[in-house]
């Protein structure tokens, strides 16, 4: 019997798509230990390995552009457009190279059964050229983002929508836009990782002070980070504990900087923001599916800065208010204010339907059934 292989195409934008795809792959491997996933992405291998416990192949390739950013809040539209146009000019060569790779893998290692996309448009072209079905996972499409910018981006949005329209199936995640370009949609619950440690275990493991959860705060702004975080505001909260993954953070007595696990915790898999969520009563972040989904799965209050220029941001901000306790912060409150928002009571979640937490399992079971055929 040949070994099933899954080709997983992940957008080149940030870390959030990579981590949620990796969390899904990890769930799928628990159902199918014989599965060999190939993760095609520019996200670093260590990031994928922090979510995937089993074997996987890493193919560092850029299949799309996403949005070029200076940090998590600042967008460079002109460079984004130039890179999109350059990618389209190379699209045929990219597709041909990936199809050749898929065929070689099928000969040497087993059978590539499916292309799973989150959510590069070229993944659909690759799947069709290789004679494979393409399933997608996402809460927004790049056509939705680019069309909102207008002008020359309209043509890019049309090109992307044409590919999405040929996708065989979409698993539509919570916090979603309509994703009308996809003809076959299945709504699922939240995806994402689960903490590896309880609060007390993690505190003991890292030698953290025993600070109550309501005075422990995680500062997390995704793989692109955030320039000019006003860390000096933390001095006003000497009996609080703040946690950051920012390598450039200053040395402050109440700030714990998560060190590079590859260098400093060689015997462990890398720490992830979700691992600290059971410890923290509040997360300060920017709008993003990955952080919001993992926060909804673990329970801390979400304090989020508004973000202009991303069409999905208002959707995320609107829906997080229905799912968990929250604070919506204007940039001036974060960058220029005294951070008194930390001492203010968060707004409770609004009455309404809660997202289910079974997205990983639902998608993994559907993929596993296809691998059987």
* Oligomeric form: single chain
CA-CA gap between termini: 12 Å
Mean pLDDT: 93
What percentage of residues falls in helices of 4 or more residues? 25-40%
How much of the sequence lies in strands comes to: 15-25%
Largest sheet: 7 strands, parallel
Describe the structure.
The chain has 373 residues and is of the alpha/beta class. Helix content is 37%, strand content 16%. The chain is built from 13 helices and 13 strands. The strands form 2 sheets. The protein has a 7-stranded parallel beta sheet, with helices on both faces. Helix 1 crosses helix 13, helix 3 packs parallel to helix 4 (122-130) and helix 5 runs antiparallel to helix 6 (153-164). The radius of gyration is 21 Å and the shape is globular. The N and C termini lie close together (12 Å).
List keywords for this structure.
373 residues; alpha/beta; 7-stranded parallel β-sheet; 6-stranded parallel β-sheet; 37% helix
Q: What's a concise summary of this model?
A:
This protein has about 375 residues and is α/β, with parallel strands linked by helices. The chain has helices at about 15-30, 45-50, 75-110, 120-130, 140-150, 155-165, 200-205, 260-265, 275, 290-300, 315-325, 330-335, 360-370, and strands at about 5-10, 35-40, 55-60, 110-120, 135-140, 170, 185, 215-220, 240-245, 255, 280-285, 300-305, 325-330. The chain has a 7-stranded parallel beta sheet with strand order 3-2-1-4-5-6-7, with helices on both faces.
């Amino acid at each position: 019997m040949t070994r099933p292989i899954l080709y997983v195409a992940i957008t080149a934008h940030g870390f959030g798509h990579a981590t949620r795809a990796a969390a899904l792959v990890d769930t799928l491997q628990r159902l199918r230990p014989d599965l060999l996933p190939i993760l095609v992405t520019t996200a670093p291998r260590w990031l994928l390995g922090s979510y995937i416990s089993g074997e996987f192949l890493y193919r560092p390739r850029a299949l799309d552009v996403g949005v070029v950013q200076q940090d998590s809040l600042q967008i460079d539209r002109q460079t984004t457009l130039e890179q999109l146009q350059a990618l389209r000019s190379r699209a045929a060569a990219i597709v041909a190279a990936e199809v050749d790779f898929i065929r070689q893998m099928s000969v040497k290692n087993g059978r590539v059964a499916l292309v799973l996309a989150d959510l590069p448009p070229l993944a659909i072209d690759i799947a069709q050229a290789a004679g494979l079905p393409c399933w997608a996972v996402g809460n927004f499409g790049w056509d939705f983002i680019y069309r909102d910018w207008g002008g020359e981006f309209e043509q890019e949005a049309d090109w992307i929508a044409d590919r999405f329209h040929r996708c065989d199936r979409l698993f539509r995640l919570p916090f979603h836009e309509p994703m009308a370009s996809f003809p076959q949609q299945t709504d699922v619950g939240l995806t994402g990782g689960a903490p590896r440690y309880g609060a007390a275990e993690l505190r003991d493991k890292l030698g953290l002070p025993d600070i109550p959860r309501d005075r422990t705060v995680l500062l997390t702004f995704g793989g692109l980070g955030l320039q000019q975080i006003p860390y000096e505001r933390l001095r006003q909260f000497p009996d609080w504990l703040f946690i950051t993954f920012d390598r450039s953070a200053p040395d402050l007595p109440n700030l714990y900087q998560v060190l590079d696990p590859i260098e400093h915790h060689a015997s462990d898999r890398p720490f992830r923001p979700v691992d600290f969520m059971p410890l923290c009563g509040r997360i300060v972040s920017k709008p993003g599916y990955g952080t919001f989904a993992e926060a909804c799965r673990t329970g801390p209050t979400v304090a989020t800065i508004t973000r202009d220029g991303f069409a999905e941001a208002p959707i995320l901000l609107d829906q997080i208010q229905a799912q968990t306790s929250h604070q919506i912060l204007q940039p001036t409150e974060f960058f220029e204010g005294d951070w008194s928002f930390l001492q203010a009571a968060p707004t409770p979640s609004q009455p309404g339907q809660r997202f289910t937490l079974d997205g990983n399992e639902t998608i993994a079971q559907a993929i596993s059934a296809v691998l059987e055929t």
